[in-house]
Design goal:
Length: about 550
C-alpha cells in the first residue's frame, strides 16, 4: 500500500496551512472586526471517528469565515484555492454554504493494513462539520463524479448503513494515474480519507464507542486541560507518535500531550499540557508575581529568563520531559545539547564549568538572566562571540560558596580576582592580565575583564563587563519590569507560575538564528506568524498532580 495519497496529503497540507495562517490572522480579527468569533467551547466532535490508538489529532474549532482580517489580505482565499486546486470544486458555491465550526485532521494509524511487508502507508482522516448534511452529500457525489470523468475507477459501497464513495487503484490506460480518495457523510460530518479502509474504521469507531478516542481515559484526562477559550486543539498520543515516526519512546515519563490555541487582543497563547501517571516535581516553586531580580534587568534586554531555585532543575518535571524527548529523537540528551545548545557546550568546555554543579547548585532563590543590546539587531561587538549579559541572583547562604567556586574556576584559568570602585560601589572582577612590550625599555599591562559581580540590596549581580554593570547600576534606564511591552505580554500568562522566558523578537532573532541554525527553517514554515511577531513569552504553571502545564504567548504587531 505504498502508492496513493498525494491528493489527500495535499488536502491535509492545505488544511494545516490554514491553521498556520489562522494563527497569524487571529489578531487581525480582534484589531479590525467588531463581530464575535463563534467558538465551540468543547472538545472536538470528530473524536468519535478516531481510534484511541491514533498518534495525533488536530482540530480547528472555528469556521474559516470568522477570519475577515486574513480574507482582506487575500490569504484565506489563496489557501482555499490551494486546497481545492485538484478537485474542480468551488469553495464559495460547494463548501461555504454548509461548512460548520470544526475541521479535524488525524493520523489514524501508522499503517492502514498493518502489514509492514508490503510497505507502510499511514491512514489520514479529515472531518469537516456540516450544517447541512444533505447539501454535503451532493458535494461528495459531485466530487467523485468529476474524478470518474477524469479517469478514476469509482466504487460505491454500503458499509453498516453508510454510503462510501472511493477510487479504486485501477485507472483506464489513457487516463492519468490518480491517487486514492474516499469520502462519505456521517451524521453532521463530511469525512475524507486516503483509503476506504480508513472510513470503514471510522464508522466502526462510532458504532463501537469503546474503540474511539473519547473512550480513552488518557484522552478524557487530557480534554479536562483544554483552555475554555481554545479555538484550536491538538492531541498527541506520544508512544504512538514515536511508533508512527519509526522511533522508540525512551524514558516514557509522559504518555500524552494536549495543546490549546487561545486568542488574545495582543496576540495568541499556545497552551500545552503533558500528562503522566508517575510522580513528577516542579522545576521551581510557584510565584504569585514576577521575581524581584527583574528590577535589575534593563528594559533594553532582548532575551530574559527568570524564576526561582535552579538547584532543582536537573531532577524536575522539565528535565524529565527534556530527557524523554531528546533520548527518543537523538538517542541521548548529550547529543541533543551538542546540536541545539552548542554555545553552552562551548562555554562549559572553554571555562571548565559544569552548569549543574558549579552554578545551578547554589541558585536556590530568585534569579534572572538576560542578554543586552544597544541596537535592534542584538549583534555582539566585532570579535565578541557572545552578547553582553546580566545574571542576578537572590542572596542565600549558598551564595558565598557559589562565588568562591567561580573564583576558583577563574583562578584555574589564569584570571586575576580583584576589586575596584564603580559609581561608589565596590565591584569584583575576573581579569585577564597581559604584559605588552611598547619598546625595549617600557612595558605596559593590558587588563581584559571576563566578568564582574557586585551586591545590590538583596541580590548579587553578575555581568559580562564593566560597561554592562554600569548600565545595570545606573538609574537612567527603566528596568524590564517597568517596561509596558513586558507587562502586556506577561498579562496573558496566569499570574501564578514558575517564571518566564521572554524574547524581544526584533532584538533577539538574529542572535538566535546564528546560535540555532534550524530556527531559520522554522521561521519559513511559520512565516505568517513570525513576520508579525513582536515578542515571545514562555512560562510553566503546573499546579495539578500528573501534569506539566505551560504556555507560549506570541505578542503580535497590530498593523
Amino acid at each position: 500500500m505504498n502508492s496513493q495519497s498525494s491528493f489527500f496529503r495535499f488536502l491535509v497540507a492545505g488544511a494545516i496551512a490554514l491553521l498556520l495562517f489562522s494563527i497569524a490572522g487571529f489578531y487581525w480579527f480582534f484589531a479590525k472586526s467588531p463581530v464575535g468569533l463563534v467558538i465551540s467551547r468543547s472538545q472536538p466532535g470528530a473524536a468519535v471517528f478516531i481510534s484511541k490508538l491514533s498518534p495525533v489529532m488536530v482540530s480547528l474549532l472555528v469556521n474559516p469565515e470568522g477570519l475577515p482580517g486574513l480574507e482582506q489580505k487575500g490569504e484565506i482565499s489563496q489557501i482555499k484555492a490551494n486546497l481545492l486546486a485538484k478537485t474542480s470544486i468551488d469553495y464559495q458555491e460547494d463548501i461555504k454554504p454548509w461548512l460548520g465550526n470544526e475541521i479535524t485532521l488525524a493520523v489514524t494509524s501508522p499503517d492502514i493494513d498493518r502489514d509492514p511487508e508490503n510497505g507502510l502507508q499511514s491512514g489520514y482522516l479529515m472531518a469537516l462539520a456540516t450544517d447541512n448534511p444533505a447539501q454535503s452529500r451532493e458535494l461528495i457525489e459531485l466530487l467523485f463524479s468529476k474524478r470518474s470523468l477524469a479517469g478514476a475507477n469509482l466504487a460505491v459501497e454500503q458499509y453498516k448503513g453508510v454510503k462510501l464513495l472511493y477510487d479504486t487503484q485501477e485507472t483506464s490506460a489513457t487516463a492519468p494515474i490518480q491517487t486514492s480518495l474516499a469520502g462519505t457523510v456521517v451524521d453532521k460530518f463530511v469525512l475524507f480519507a486516503n483509503d476506504a479502509q480508513v472510513l470503514r474504521e471510522a464508522i466502526n469507531n462510532v458504532q463501537a464507542p469503546d474503540l474511539n478516542l473519547t473512550s480513552s481515559p488518557e484522552y478524557q484526562k487530557a480534554t479536562q486541560q483544554i483552555h475554555q477559550d481554545a479555538v484550536a486543539v491538538t492531541f498527541l498520543n506520544l508512544p504512538e507518535v514515536a511508533n508512527w515516526q519509526g522511533l522508540e519512546l525512551a524514558e516514557s515519563t509522559y504518555s500524552s500531550q494536549i495543546l490549546s490555541l487561545v486568542l488574545n487582543p495582543q496576540g495568541l497563547l499556545v497552551e500545552s499540557t503533558f500528562l503522566t501517571s508517575t510522580e513528577v516535581t516542579s522545576s521551581s516553586p510557584s510565584l504569585s508575581k514576577p521575581v524581584g531580580a527583574l528590577d535589575y534587568i534593563p528594559a533594553s534586554a532582548g532575551l530574559v529568563i527568570s524564576g526561582a531555585n535552579l538547584n532543582n532543575l536537573p531532577n524536575s518535571d522539565l528535565a524529565k520531559l527534556w530527557r524523554q524527548g531528546t533520548a527518543t529523537i537523538y538517542g541521548s540528551s548529550a547529543e541533543a545539547i551538542s546540536r541545539w545548545l552548542k554555545p553552552l557546550v562551548d562555554v562549559e568546555k572553554d571555562w571548565g564549568v559544569n552548569f549543574s554543579e558549579d552554578i545551578f547548585s547554589w541558585v536556590v532563590g530568585e534569579y534572572a538572566i538576560a542578554t543586552l543590546t544597544e541596537d535592534s539587531a542584538i549583534l555582539p561587538k566585532e570579535g565578541n562571540a557572545t552578547p553582553n549579559w546580566v545574571f542576578v541572583v537572590e542572596k542565600t547562604p549558598q551564595l558565598v560558596e557559589g562565588i568562591a567556586r567561580l573564583d576558583k574556576i577563574a583562578s584555574s584559568k589564569g584570571l586575576n580576582v580583584s576589586s575596584l570602585s564603580l559609581k561608589q560601589q565596590t565591584v569584583y572582577a575576573w581579569t585577564e592580565l597581559k604584559a605588552i612590550s611598547q619598546d625595549e625599555l617600557a612595558l605596559s599591562v593590558e587588563a581584559k575583564i571576563q566578568g564582574v559581580h557586585t551586591n545590590q540590596g538583596n541580590y548579587e549581580i553578575f555581568t559580562s563587563d564593566l560597561k554592562t554593570m554600569d548600565k545595570v547600576l545606573t538609574s537612567k534606564e527603566k528596568s524590564l519590569i517597568d517596561n509596558p511591552k513586558f507587562q502586556d505580554t506577561i498579562s496573558a500568562i496566569p499570574h501564578i507560575n514558575q517564571g518566564y522566558i521572554y524574547i524581544d523578537w526584533k532584538k533577539s532573532h538574529k542572535l538566535l538564528e546564528r546560535q540555532l541554525p534550524l530556527l531559520k527553517f522554522v521561521e519559513v514554515l511559520g512565516k505568517p506568524l513570525f513576520k508579525n511577531l513582536r515578542s515571545l513569552t514562555v512560562s510553566s504553571y503546573s499546579r495539578e498532580s500528573g501534569t506539566l502545564k505551560g504556555g507560549a504567548f506570541f505578542q503580535l504587531h497590530r498593523s
